[in-house]
Amino acid sequence: MPENSNQKRGSFLKWQPDAVSWMALALFMVVAVLPFMLMLCKSFSIEGQLSFQNYNTVFSDSRVAGLLLKSFSLSAGAALLSLIFGVPFALVLARFDFVGRKISSLIYLVPLFIPPHVHALAWIYLFGPQGVINKSLMNILHLPEAPVHLYSVFGAAVVLALSYFPILVLLTLTGLFSMDARMEEPASMHHRPLRVLRTITLPLIAPYIGAGAVFVFIFSFFNYGVPSMLRVPSFPVEIFTRFSAYYDEGGATALSLPMVAVALLLMGLQWQFMKKKSFVSTASGSRKSTPRKLPQKYALAASCFVSLILLTAIALPLCSLLIQSASLESFKVALQTSHREILTTFFVAAAAAIVTTALAYFLTMYIHNRRSSFTSMLDICTYLPFAFPAALFGIGLIYLWNRPATQIVYGTILILIIACTARFIPFAIRIINFRLQQISPSLREAALMHEGRWSKRFLCIDMPLVRRGLLICAVITFIFATSELGATLLVIPPGQGTIALKIYTLMHYGSGPLVAAQSLLLIGMNLLASSILLIGLNKNCV
Prior knowledge:
Layout: H1 3-12, H2 18-43, E1 45-46, E2 49-50, H3 53-59, H4 63-95, E3 96-97, H5 101-107, H6 110-113, H7 116-127, H8 132-141, H9 153-177, H10 185-188, H11 193-221, H12 225-229, H13 235-246, H14 249-275, E4 292-293, H15 296-325, H16 328-369, H17 373-381, H18 390-401, H19 407-410, H20 414-438, H21 441-450, H22 454-482, H23 488-491, H24 499-507, H25 512-540
Parallel strand pairs: 3-4
Antiparallel strand pairs: 1-2
Helix pairs in contact: 2-14, 2-16, 2-18, 2-20, 3-14, 4-9, 4-11, 4-15, 7-9, 7-15, 9-11, 11-14, 13-14, 13-18, 15-25, 16-17, 16-20, 16-22, 16-25, 20-22, 22-25, 24-25
């Protein structure tokens, strides 16, 4: 349908009321953007006077360039390794039938259920200087020192890649499963599979792969827990130290700006790239690709490839934690001493998932259906919270909410819900946007003409169409919220600690069995809650 026809229709029938759109926009600005803007203003002020001293002090430090290079190398390495692991994994899982395919498609998200700093703990036990596998290799091969150096930029990149590569797999699978089989079949009749993959499949799913790689880079770039545990100097660690040890919030903000610039540049390039790409869509009448039967030797190779990645990313860390937990007594003590933190974590994560998903939906609907220069700018602004280091965002929350009039927010778990919502809403918006891009415009146009009342269209038409995206969004947000550390470490209310924070704190006191047991309880909680939602998704979603 011509564009001007769509614009005319949009002037009479609105996808959602203006009041809903403006409330969502105002909430997004207050929750996600205002803390950073406040810190940016404070960085240019000393004793109430305009000053560039914070920036002069920070950028005259010779270590800054080295920190930026290490942080960039760490994140780029994690993103590259995720591409190497994730894209072939997703292609094999989506396109071929092999032994273990069904179980692999169910459990590939499990590494996300393990917080990155818990991943680091597990790998330290295996490959640290005194790690079980390193010591065994030294004894067997008669080596004078440990052959695997986990305490390095490369070691941290591997840990982060194994933590975050399911994000890339999820988005790549989303693109592959939404493709119409008729896009590939004509070429498959005349060309070899590799050429079809290179010339048709990969270009069609490139927006999804690119988005996944950017997400992995950004999450790794701003991760605090893994570099601090593996003693890798990085910007997030330095920012946290400047504030927590020296109370230098201006210097911490100034130090974060190179990270913000790199993140904004990368996300801007991705935004431009995705604007020029067409998304595969689920138009009515489309046909899904069915997994192909492989010759026995190729099916065995596919099964071994997928199993090797899953064993490395799931089985080894979980076995490491089980061995460290030592006995059932550790789990008993963990439950007795941490039940309050577990309940707090569950409530905060569930509330953050609901709020984030709802806010992301209303913002995405507004941006998607109101094409204008303002909504294009708003679309760019929704990337901004991804460009903020978690520690800097936590400092901003302190200065914004730690006031007598707002103690009902700052002194309760509401501040944790706000922190998690702001940190992960850009990711939620991208997931819902991908789902909207897959829906045929003809379906949504027919819905708009058939039902003019927004409330009824919202419940009976819009929700069924995007329910799958909303549930995936809620699951991922819940998982990320349970392991959030960078911001909550600074704003945690008294007596309202999360289990992720308690695990991180106890790691520094050598409570190995207790920490391992608590980590497994956290993973179990993530698995249980996410499984319930995903089972509902598979049974009820379109």
